[in-house]
Specification:
Layout (H helix, E strand, L loop, with lengths): L5 E4 L2 E4 L13 H29 L5 H17 L12 H4 L4 H18 L6 E9 L8 E10 L5 H33 L4 H5 L24
Antiparallel strand pairs: 1-2, 3-4
């Protein structure tokens, strides 16, 4: 994989490193869909990896920072494997071997789904109780109280395992990304020069406040 460098100009943006290029063209959707989605997965996984790196440096007593980094790493990782209307999801069985790798993946995914995001399992509970007075008191019930029990800070084993999950996913995505890039180049090299220059210019839509609730249009078959 690579990092693209570009600069802006009055006509849009200029891709650096290709001084002889005459056009930056948008390939057809059937060629570019998977390629685009792999890049988005890579960005999320890279962010998760950075969160885990910062988590390793965080003080254990800084509970807010530890929890924020842990939650961010979990959400960014499993975002790549969850259903999305705008991009193809990664498939667990294509990346992780059967047995312990998939068991660890499922365990961490359940933390994300059932604890962090949706609060459905018993890792967070609230105990409600009524304080009952002795018969000599005028009021039989003194107060209603509640307090929470939460499995909060991650253990080192969970942090290490999530790091392994992320690193394996990044490795797989990078391999697929490079393969897809080569296949796009190979396919377009079979086209005539006129067909290539007739392709539309590659462009991005500018996001706005009005578009925040909409599902974006992505390359699709």
């Amino acid at each position: 994989m690579y990092q693209v460098s570009f600069s802006q100009n009055p006509n849009g943006f200029h891709i650096e490193g290709y001084p002889n290029a005459v056009k930056f063209a948008q390939p057809p959707d059937d060629l570019s869909k998977a390629y685009a989605h792999l890049w988005l997965h890579y960005e999320d996984l890279h962010f998760a990896h950075q969160c885990l790196s910062r988590l390793a440096e965080a003080r254990p007593d800084d509970r807010i920072l530890v929890q924020a980094l842990w939650h961010s790493a979990l959400v960014a990782t499993f975002k790549c494997f969850q259903f999305s209307k705008a991009r193809e999801s990664l498939i667990r069985n294509n990346i992780y071997e059967s047995g312990i790798q998939r068991e660890v993946f499922d365990y961490l995914k359940n933390i994300r789904n059932k604890t962090v995001v949706h609060d459905e399992n018993d890792w967070r509970q609230v105990l409600v109780g009524a304080v009952i007075n002795p018969p000599s008191e005028p009021s039989k019930v003194e107060a209603a109280l509640c307090f929470a029990l939460s499995v909060g800070a991650p253990g080192q084993t969970d942090i290490t395992n999530l790091g392994l999950v992320v690193e394996r996913a990044i490795e797989w995505v990078q391999q697929q990304f490079d393969t897809k890039a080569d296949s796009i180049v190979d396919e377009l090299n079979t086209w005539s020069y006129d067909e290539l220059t007739a392709l539309p210019d590659a462009k991005l839509d500018v996001p706005t406040a009005a578009s925040v609730g909409n599902t974006r249009n992505t390359p699709r078959r």
